[in-house]
Specification:
Length: 339
């Protein structure tokens, strides 16, 4: 009876484990499935330390089991066994082995670190300035004069060189399939680079607890062929020339320019307090987390706090009528650069 009860208690743990392990199935959110040279060399270090640990674990367990069996208490045995203290030979052995193991770990780690730093690209790169905000990501391409929010476009087969900083607290920039994390610290600039070999969408995460919506601070790396990338840059620049397609969207644009443009840029104009919305209509997520559809866009404008607690966008549900919000949604949904 009590045995069953105990088994039932294990159920939530098993359920949780299944839930967590399903998360590991996402092919583009795993450091164990690298999609570029930086992540590949980092994975080789992960494997090396894993196999060393596994070796140590097996040796320790074998000795442990042997000692348990050999020196177990036998029937009729009385008193405590003979106590042994100080054994130079053993002490030298168990000091030397860890030193050797640490060297085996340290040498490739140092070599890889220097190697990645040496390969730090100098020419023929795409420069991106990453600014982390509570709770979204800003990507500026200083040489191309283009900016995006949440979605980072990069060309495949080319090194992308990052300058990382933060607008508020410490965040950490992490695209598991492409490279290890790098902190973004306010008031200073960190550097890193990576490269995606294949086209694809690679998930990114903030990896440093940064406030109530830290867990919702997702972004995407969209890797496309170099030709497509150039086309994308051209379209982003041409976006300044667009005009709203309908009268409703036109009304939405007027409201947007009055109430939103101070924080959100569209087509090179506007503030940087919120994500750049130039290609918002092409997104497949709203605010990085909600499924992209008109209801969710309207719900976000109504009350952003209920979607992402602690974020820095004010609610407009009590300032704008439903009709005004609908026209804003129509305007935002028309902000596409891909037809
Ligand atoms: C005080 C600055 C501020 C104002 C004014 C503002 N926003 Fe925002 N907005 C933000 C911030 C900050 C975020 C990012 C929130 C987050 O994800 O943490 C955001 C996010 C968004 C998003 C989601 C963007 C994305 O990347 O998916 C939309 C859509 C949006 N705002 C629309 C509007 C509209 C429409 C207005 C005007 C009615 C407006 N905002 C006014 C600061 C502002
Ligand atoms: Cu963060």
């Amino acid at each position: 009876m009590s045995g069953w009860k105990n088994l039932c208690r294990l159920l939530p743990i098993v359920a949780l484990a299944m839930f967590v392990l399903t998360g590991c199935g996402d092919p583009y959110l795993s450091a164990l499935d690298p999609k570029g040279p930086v992540a590949e060399s980092q994975l080789s270090l992960i494997k090396l330390s894993f196999y060393i640990m596994l070796g140590v674990f097996i040796v320790v367990m074998v000795i442990f089991t042997y000692v348990l069996v050999k020196f177990r208490k036998r029937p009729g045995q009385t008193g405590i066994p003979k106590q042994v203290e100080g054994n130079h030979k053993l002490e030298i052995i168990w000091t030397t082995i860890p030193i050797i193991l640490l060297l085996v770990l340290a040498i490739p780690t140092v070599i890889t670190t220097f190697d990645l730093a040496e390969k730090f690209p100098s020419e023929d790169v795409v420069n991106v300035k990453v600014t982390a905000h509570q709770f979204w990501w800003e990507f500026d391409y200083p040489d191309l004069e283009v900016s995006t929010g949440q979605d980072l476009y990069i060309p495949t087969g080319k090194k992308v060189q990052f300058q990382l900083t933060s607008a508020d607290v410490i965040h950490s920039f992490w695209v598991p399939a492409l490279a290890g994390k790098t902190d973004t610290n306010p008031g200073m600039v960190n550097h890193m680079w990576f490269q995606a070999d294949q086209p694809g969408v690679y998930q990114g995460k903030c990896a440093e607890l940064c406030g109530p919506s830290h867990a919702l601070m997702d972004f995407k790396v969209v890797a496309v062929s170099p030709e497509e990338f150039d086309t994308w840059v051209g379209k982003m620049k041409a976006a300044a020339e667009r005009t709203p397609a309908t009268a409703t969207a036109q009304q939405g644009q007027e409201i947007f320019n009055k109430s939103c443009l101070g924080c959100h840029a569209v087509g090179g104009q506007g503030g940087k307090m919120g994500p750049n919305l130039t290609a918002f209509g092409d997104r497949d997520k709203v605010a990085g987390i909600l499924e992209y559809n008109k209801e969710n866009i309207a719900a976000w404008i109504h009350d952003p706090q209920s979607k992402k607690p602690g974020n820095l966008m004010p609610a407009f549900g009590d300032k704008l009528s439903d009709q005004e919000i609908d026209s804003l949604v129509e305007y935002l949904d028309g902000l596409k650069i891909n037809e």
